[in-house]
Amino acid sequence: MSYEIKPAFPRKMVALTLVFLAASLPLIFILPIQSQQDAAPMIFPISGGGQQVQHPRAGSGVTFSIMLSDVREVQSMLTRDNGIVASGYDGHGWVGKIDSHGTLEWSKDYRPSLKARSIEQTEDGGYVVAGDTILNGTEDGWVLKLDQSGDVQWSRTIGSSIGQGLVSVRQTSDRGYIAAGTVLGFRGPYDWSDGWLVKFDSSGNVEWQQAYGGSGFSNAYSVQETRDHGFVVAGNTPVNNTMTAWLFKTDRVGRIVWQKAYAVTNDNHAGMVEQTSDGGYILDADVTSTDISPRPVSTLFLKLDSEGNIQWQKLYSSNGVGDIETEVS
Questions:
Q1: Number of domains into which the chain is organized
Q2: Does residue 218 lie in a domain region?
Q3: Fewer CB atoms inside 10 A, N or C side of the chain?
Q4: 42 and 158 inside one domain
C-alpha cells in the first residue's frame, strides 16, 4: 500500500529566488558577539554499553555496531584508519573512537554541559567538534579541537546575550574551520532566529562571523567549503508563509553570492549539502506532507548546478507499509 504526497504547490517543484529579500540582498548582519578562549573543559571517561552506532566497514560492505549507554543525537563518520569516530550527548558532550573491528578504543565526556552535534577528523589526525553549551544561563556555540586520543587542544565558546548554537563544522583549506548554526533574536525579540556562520583560524580564533535570514525562523544546518574557497550552506527559511529548504552560496568572507529556496509542501527543511565533481551540488531535504494524517516525512534529493538551479530531483516517501519513489518534475 502506498500514498501519493499531495503538495500545497503544483506538482512541479518550486524553486524560489528569495524575492522577499530583493531590496536588501545580501541580507547579512555583523554580529556583536565575543569569542572566549576557554580553559579546557573537564574530561570524564565513560564506558560503552544503550544506543547503537552502526557504520559500514570501509571496503568490506560489512556493517558493525556498538552499544553506547545513554548517548543521544549520535553523529558518526569513518576515520582514515577505517574506524569510526562518533559524537553525541549524554547529559554532557561525548566523543568516542571505535576501531575497524568495532572495539571501543576510547570514550570521553566533556564538561561543563555540551551538546556535541557535529564532528570531523582533521588533517593532523585529531578531531574538531561543534555544538552548544549553557554558560551563565545562555546557550552559546562551542567548538573543541581534540587530538587523536580525544584530549582537548583548545576550546572556544562564542555567543551573545540571546543564545545560539552550532550544528555543523568542517576544516577548511587554510587549516582553519567553518561552523554553521543558528543565532537567536539578533535584531530584537521578534526576530526569532537567523542562519549563522563562524570562521575560525587554526588556533580557534574567530576571523569573521555573519548572520543570514529574513523575518521569522531561519536556520543553517550544513556547511561546506567550495572549490573557489567560498562556502555553501543549507538550512531553512520562510517565504510567503511557507517554510522552504534554503541553499545559499557565499564568498570566502561570508558575503552572499546567490541564494535559492525550494518547496514541495509548505514545510521543507534542507539537511546536508555537498559539492559535486561538476561544480554543482547535491542537496537533501525533509518534506512534510501537511494534508495527510499522520503527517509523513519524505526525503527530497536535488541535483543542482553551480548556481543552485535544479538539474534533477526525486522525492522518496513511505507510509510505513510500502515504499514509493516519486519524481518531481
A1: 2
A2: no
A3: N
A4: yes
Average pLDDT over residues 266-287: 92
- The enclosing H or E element of 130 equals strand 127-135
Task: Tell me how crowded residue 327 is: count the other CB atoms within 10 A of its CB.
Answer: 10
Instruction: Please give the backbone phi and psi of residue 22, each rounded to the nearest 5 degrees, phi first.
Output: -55, -35
Please count the CA atoms within 13 angstroms of the CA of 229 that sit on its side-chain side.
6
Name which of 214, 274, 223 is nearest 244 in CA terms. Answer: 214
Is 222 domain-assigned? no
State how far the Cα of 239 lies from the Cα of 180, in Å rounded to an integer. 21
Decide if 220 is inside a domain: no
Closest CA to 266 of 295, 301, 228, 305: 295
- State whether 45 and 94 are in the same domain: yes
Give the Å distances, CA to CA, from 111 to 93, 108, 149, 220.
Answer: 7, 10, 17, 25
Q: Which helix (H) or strand (E) holds 309?
A: none
Q: Is residue 285 part of a domain?
A: yes
| Nine-digit cell string for 277 | 565533481
Residue 311, pLDDT above cutoff 70: yes
> Domain range holding 58?
32-212
Cell readout for 26 is 545580501
132 & 254 share domain = no
Tell me, yes or no, whether 274 and 147 share the same domain: no
218 secondary structure, DSSP code: -
Cell of 80: 582514515
User: In whole angstroms, how large is the CA radius of gyration of the chain?
Assistant: 20
What is the value of pTM for the model shown?
0.77
State whether residue 6 is helix, strand or coil.
Answer: coil
Cell numbers for 148: 587523536
Tell me, yes or no, whether 58 and 129 share the same domain.
yes
> pLDDT tens digits, residue range 45-76?
333 333 444 444 444 443 444 445 555 567 77
Which single residue is written with the C-alpha cell 519513489?
325
Q: How far apart are CA 240 and CA 243, in angstroms?
A: 8
